[in-house]
């Protein structure tokens, strides 16, 4: 099916009008060269501090990995912004007549105030002996972060790779470094233009060593 961007923009506007200023609707064009300026439509972008022409978030990388064959629409998951706001998000991948993803259509409802209210209620109920049955606040701590640029996205992925290993890059041995690089490779980090240069510099290794490690990762994946 071929999707018309103008029709998608009309739907985005309608959703934003229906659900109000706490609902952000964004469309990414994943065919944008080097993933610069993927945001081609955004409604109520102030809640995530994004605007037209901003860069990709994690969902765009998901759409590009393996030609988008491994992804499917996601509904009602949690995301967060750099300043700590929490969204309930849904992502739909719009494919062209060849089955390739052309656009990523995202809906983000800001539930930050609801979580704060929930926390206040929990404090009151716990004080009178009522068990706390809420998990939203705990889940939000590990929510996927919404990024606004290619550089921001790559920094976020590197941070996650380091957290995966649990040790600063300068203290990692070779096996731990390869584990971090595998995380980055699996996350699609190397789809980002000039990512290899920044990642190599971050881990203090040459381009030759970086690609040697990546080849070792690919060979191991084939064996498995």
Structural overview:
The protein contains 8 helices and 6 strands. It is α+β, with helices and mostly antiparallel strands and 224 residues long. It has a 6-stranded mixed β-sheet, sandwiched between helices. A hairpin with a 5-residue loop joins β3 (74-80) and β4. α5 (150-165) crosses α6 (174-186). The longest helix has 17 residues, at 207-223. The protein is globular, with a radius of gyration of 20 Å.
Brief overview:
With 224 residues, this protein is an alpha+beta fold.
Keywords for this structure?
single chain, alpha+beta, 6-stranded mixed beta sheet, 6 strands, 44% helix
Mean pLDDT: 87
Radius of gyration (CA) equals 20 Å
Structural class: alpha+beta
Number of helices: 8
N-to-C SSE string, H for helix and E for strand = HEEHEEEHHEHHHH
How far apart lie the N and C ends? Answer: 36 Å
Beta-strand content: 15-25%
Low-confidence stretches are none
Question: How is this fold's topology laid out?
Answer:
Blueprint (H helix, E strand, L loop, with lengths): L4 H15 L3 E7 L9 E5 L14 H7 L9 E7 L5 E10 L5 E10 L1 H16 L8 H6 L2 E2 L4 H16 L8 H13 L8 H9 L3 H17 L1
Parallel strand pairs: 3-6
Antiparallel strand pairs: 1-2, 1-5, 3-4, 4-5
Helix pairs in contact: 5-6
């Amino acid at each position: 099916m071929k999707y018309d961007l103008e029709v998608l923009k009309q739907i985005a506007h309608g959703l934003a009008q229906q659900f109000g200023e706490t609902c952000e609707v964004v469309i990414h064009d994943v065919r944008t060269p080097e993933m610069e300026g993927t945001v081609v439509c955004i409604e109520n972008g102030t809640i995530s501090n994004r605007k037209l022409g901003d860069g990709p978030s994690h969902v765009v990388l998901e759409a590009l990995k393996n030609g988008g064959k491994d992804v499917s629409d996601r509904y009602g998951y949690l995301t967060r912004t750099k300043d700590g706001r929490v969204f309930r998000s849904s992502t739909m991948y719009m494919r062209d007549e060849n089955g390739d993803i052309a656009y990523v259509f995202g809906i983000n409802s800001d539930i930050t105030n609801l979580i704060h209210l929930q926390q206040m209620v929990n404090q009151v109920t716990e004080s009178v002996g009522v068990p706390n049955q809420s998990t939203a606040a705990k889940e939000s701590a590990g929510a996927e972060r919404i990024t606004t640029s290619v550089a921001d996205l790559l920094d976020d992925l590197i941070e996650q790779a380091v957290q995966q290993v649990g040790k600063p890059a300068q203290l990692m041995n070779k096996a731990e470094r390869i584990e971090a690089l595998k995380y980055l490779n699996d996350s699609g980090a190397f789809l980002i233009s000039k990512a290899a240069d920044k990642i190599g510099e971050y881990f203090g290794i040459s381009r030759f060593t970086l690609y040697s490690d990546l080849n070792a990762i690919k060979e191991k994946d084939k064996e498995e």
